[in-house]
Amino acid sequence: MLPFTRFHAATLLDLHTWSTLSRNEVRPFLARFGIHPLGRKYPMVRVYEHLLGLSPSDTFEDNMLGGGLVRATNVAEWFGVSRDVLLDQLRASNNGYPPLYAFGPKRNLMLRAQVEQLLSSPRNTWKNLAPIHGHALPASCLARHLKVPQSRIDAMLADKDALPARIICQGRVRFIVSDVAHRLRISGAVDPAAMSEEARTDTRDGDAPDAATTSTGGTPRGLFADTTARAAAHSQTQRSCTGSGPDARRGECLHGVSAEAKLSGT
What is the pLDDT along the chain (266 residues), one digit of tens a residue? Predict the structure, then answer.
């Protein structure tokens, strides 16, 4: 029963409830992001980190993440607007809504806890969660991070109806790196081993290399220590839908949503 704890060993049925995806969709969907079960179940912390790019730093955040996702169509009903109006608002620059997780056409989701916080707050505030570094990047950074020709990324983003999974926050879009890498691998554009090694050693702009430890499924593990430290530093950060809340980390080098990131369906 929701909310799940971070170390809950989730079954496919649990993940169906948490994500709103059908039970048959869950396994191949998570595989797109390099998420594999431990035995026959999925530790929820693995799903949080590698799907959403978030790691809870305390019990409150644990409960927020464990409460699951909600479809944008439902959110639109709660806000008293149409689906199209909500999606237009989410695309607007510097809007105060929680992040949208766009996993494909008709698969646009939001973190239920953040939406409920916004609805219940008289000032339209909600708790922001610090993202894991390197989980999602602007389009301009993907080629350099993955060490592939820019033409490969441009070609991938040219198909507006089949964009890689992305996170849209305050009208800015970041593509989830693992899904981009998955698409490059299945297209035969790059050698998987070479891309993985180069991505680990990428120290662009003086940043520290990404984590080199892996799980049994061969996917990068989250940076627990670094993530906890960042989350603790920003644990009180809130955003406001009306702009009345404090300004919350607006300079993350995120891209504005262009026509290429147009949302379709929910």
Answer: 899 999 999 999 999 999 999 999 999 999 999 999 999 999 999 999 999 999 999 999 999 999 999 999 999 999 999 989 999 999 999 899 999 999 988 899 999 999 999 999 999 999 999 999 999 999 999 999 999 999 999 999 999 889 999 999 999 999 999 999 999 999 875 555 555 454 444 434 444 333 333 334 444 444 455 555 555 555 555 666 655 444 444 444 444 444 444 554 55
Q: What are phi and psi of 57, to 5 degrees?
A: -105, -10
**HEC letters along the chain:** CCCCCCCCEECHHHHHHHHCCCHHHHHHHHHCCCCCCECCEEEHHHHHHHHHCCCCCCHHHHHHHHCCEEEHHHHHHHHCCCHHHHHHHHHCCCCCCCCEEECCCCCEEEEHHHHHHHHHCCCCEEECCCCCCCCEECHHHHHHHHCCCHHHHHHHHHCCCCCCCEEEECCEEEEEHHHHHHHHHHCCCCCHHHHHHHHHHCCHHHCCCCCCCECCCCCECCCHHHHHHHHHHCCCCEEECCCCCCCCCCCCCCEECCHHHCCCCC
Tell me which residue of 14, 60, 220, 193 sits closest to 134, measured CA to CA.
Answer: 220
Of 226, 215, 211, nearest to 177 (Cα)?
211
- Determine if the pTM surpasses 0.70: yes
